[in-house]
Write a structure and sequence with these properties.
Helices cover 41% and strands 21% of the residues. By secondary structure, the protein is of the alpha+beta class. The relative contact order is 0.26.
Length: 104
C-alpha cells in the first residue's frame, strides 16, 4: 500500500491559494462557488466528475438552481489539504471557464 499524501503547511496552503484566485480556505478545506444555472451546473459537474475519476481525487459538490459549490480536502491525509487539492481546484477552474460559469 502507498504512503498517505503529505499535508501542506499553513504557509504552503497560503502560497497555493494566491495562485488560485476565488478559492478560499475554510479550515482544512478549500471552497469556491460558480454562478451557473441548474442544467449548466449539471453538465459542469459531469465534466468535473470525469476528470476526478481519471485523477483519483474528488470534491464535495453542492448544486443549487443558480450556482454550484465545490469543497476539496484530502480524505486519505486525515481531511487535510495536500497538493492534490490544489491541482483539482485548478482543473475545476479550467472546466468552469469552458462552461462559462461565473465566479461568485
Amino acid at each position: 500500500m502507498g504512503d498517505a499524501p503529505r499535508p501542506l503547511s499553513d504557509r504552503e496552503v497560503a502560497e497555493r491559494l494566491e495562485q488560485l484566485p476565488g478559492w478560499e480556505r475554510s479550515g482544512d478545506t478549500i471552497t469556491r462557488s460558480y454562478g451557473i444555472r441548474y442544467h449548466g451546473g449539471v453538465a459542469m459537474i459531469v465534466h468535473v466528475a470525469d476528470v476526478e475519476r481519471l485523477i483519483g481525487h474528488h470534491a464535495d459538490i453542492d448544486l443549487r438552481w443558480d450556482h454550484v459549490r465545490f469543497a476539496i480536502t484530502t480524505h486519505d491525509a486525515g481531511h487535510k489539504l495536500t497538493a492534490a487539492d490544489f491541482d483539482l481546484a485548478a482543473r475545476i477552474d479550467r472546466i468552469a471557464a469552458a462552461h462559462e460559469a461565473q465566479p461568485q
